[in-house]
Amino acid sequence: MPTLKSVWVLLPRRQAALPYRQLKPMRGNGPSPAPIRVRPVVFRGRLRKKRMAIGSSTAARSGMQQHHPFPSHSHTRLSCVPASIPVPGLDPNGSGAEPQPGPTAGSDRSLAAQRAGISQAAETLTRRRFLTLGSVAGVGLSAATWRGRPSAGTPAPSTEHHAQSDYLTRDEDFVTVGRGKPPPHDLPIERRRAVGLVPETWRLEVVPDPESGARLDRPLTREAGTAMDWEGLLRLAERAAVRFLCVMSCTNMKRPLGMGLWEGVPLREVIRMVHPTANVRRVFYYGWHNDDLSQRFQSSLTLDRVLEELPGELPVVLCYKLNGQWLSPKRGGPVRLLVPGAYGNKSVKWLQRVVLTNNPRLNDTYADWNNDTESQLKTYACCNAVPETLPASRPWTLTGLAQVGPSGLSEVQYALQPKDTPVPSEDPYLAQLDWRTARILPPPDRWGGGLPEGKLPVPWPLEFDSITGRPRSWPLRYTVAHWAATLTDLRPGAYDLRCRTIDLRGVAQPLPRPLLKSGYNAIQKVTLTVLG
Q1: What is the three-class DSSP state of 236?
Q2: Is the terminal CB of the chain with fewer CB neighbours within 10 Å at N or C?
Q3: CB 273 within 8 A of CB 265
Q4: What is the pLDDT of residues 9-23, one digit of tens each?
């Protein structure tokens, strides 16, 4: 009986949905060769020339590991803490003075003011990236119909904007959404030092929940003097620190709060230190809010999400840096939790206590506010500021950003129709509009965010190739992408302008879950008036 051999065929990612199949032996003189099983190997990045290995299953497995679609993160971990890490008790400059809090939003900031701030921050996030676009066309519209048609021969938007890009949001430009009366970051430095909100007095307790029978061999407690301190966290960072790009977003707000490069230690490293032995299935965690239980903000995760993320997933981290700088009090410093792929309610600020429990129920603060606290980020698009009026004779470049959830992003689209056109009852998600494709901009050459020369630090973020220093794919999940389209030859009139996303599965916004409590992803509509 012939021996079964394997051929591993390298295919582009979108062509990889091939079933395993066995080919019949070739006809001809002499003995029949071994049947060959063809298996697709998927990998991210460009298709590279490589010989096909025909032989033992051992060789085939070796090839699969080399070109796995979810590369291991182990080689991109930070091998050591950057030299700028200070001795505990000193500020990053080594002066010994505590960093002062920046300007605050105020505890009585109105919802309208927050929304205005979100819009302004999001516009700032993208504005520099399109300064040089001018009237260069991305997707043109002609006067063939009132809806507009693509202009023949229009070039793609310029990439010169890379020289002035600001993809990452500076700390001071993040939109602040928080709790506390007063907010902890507004407290005087003496008070923050007394309650553990500065590096030299910060402590993290990791304890069992006695009401659920959870058992730990080595709990970390203040009472026993074993709670983790700042110096202990930095020692752990010397071997386990990671950094990655991630957007911060609020469940029911229409724009992201900011886009950052975050750095920290995976929470699993600390969980392993306490040696859980029995009756643990969830992780409860708490931020400090004025020693007032009624103000306390808390959230939870499954133990599995903390200990073992899926291949290609990003870890939950104890975060202490944003864009290469120590986390400011306003952003939740000295240490906050950062949960990639989740809304901001999971990424609790001013972290001080972790409880391992056998309680299967959520303890999330927002769960009692009629929100889905387990919902992952939605993929959706939004426009930047749109002027109330435009001259019909002048091309206009529409710009915006898209938030990329776990389902990824393949396309951004926009549509124009006469103002107040009724939505057909049989088309509640507007699938029948004349959607046009915008251009998703590539990764910037300068990332902004206050990084020196706008360059990302090395070792590279987890989503980047450790050799080339470029993203393994684009757009990246859990980040934002910028997009542009140029509208030309519009006829005078009033229009409704909409934009939406298509994810990697081909699903169009607002599906799959258009309900607000699961994360905002409604299709944005703005009014555009073209003057003759």
Answers
A1: helix
A2: N
A3: no
A4: 343 333 333 232 332
* Separation of CA 287 from chain center: 22
- Output the 3-class SS for 463-527: CECCCCCCECCCCCCCCEEEEEEEECCCCCEEEEEEEEEECCCCCECCCCCCCHHHCCCCCEEEE
> How remote is the C-alpha of 140 from its chain's centroid?
30
pLDDT digits (tens, 9 = 90+) for 379-434: 999 999 899 899 988 899 999 999 999 999 999 999 999 999 998 899 999 999 99
Mean pLDDT of 486-498: 92
Helices (H), 343-397: none
**Distances in Å between the alpha carbon of 254 and those of 42, 108, 345, 521, 524?**
35, 21, 15, 8, 9
Distances (CA, A) of 369 to 78, 180, 345, 364, 366: 39, 16, 12, 9, 5
pLDDT at 423: 87
Note the Cα 126 to chain centre separation in Å.
16
- How many Cβ atoms are within 10 Å of 116's Cβ, its own excluded? 11
Strands (E), 168-272: 203-208, 215-216, 228-229, 242-248, 258-266
SS3 at position 387: coil
Which residue reads 């009724």 in tokens?
A: 422
Copy the structure tokens of residue 295.
Answer: 């103000």
Nearest to 72 by CA among 471, 459, 462, 460: 462
* CA neighbor of 40 nearest in space, from 61, 56, 21, 18: 18
Closest to 503 in 3D by CA, of 386, 397, 409: 409
In this structure, the chain runs to a length of 532
Give the pTM: 0.72
DSSP of 81-129: --TTPPPTTS-TTSSSPPPPP-----TT--HHHHHHHHHHHHHHHHHGG
CA–CA gap between residue 133 and residue 373 (Å, rounded): 39
Q: Which two tokens stand for residue 509?
A: 């916004």
Kindly list the distances between the CA atom of residue 470 and the CA atoms of 75, 81, 508, in Å, as whole numbers in the listed order. Answer: 15, 22, 28
Q: Which amino acid is at 128?
A: R
What's the whole-number mean pLDDT along residues 96-115?
36
Res 35: pLDDT = 38
Helix, strand, or coil (residue 267): helix
The CA distance from 299 to 347, in Å, is 8
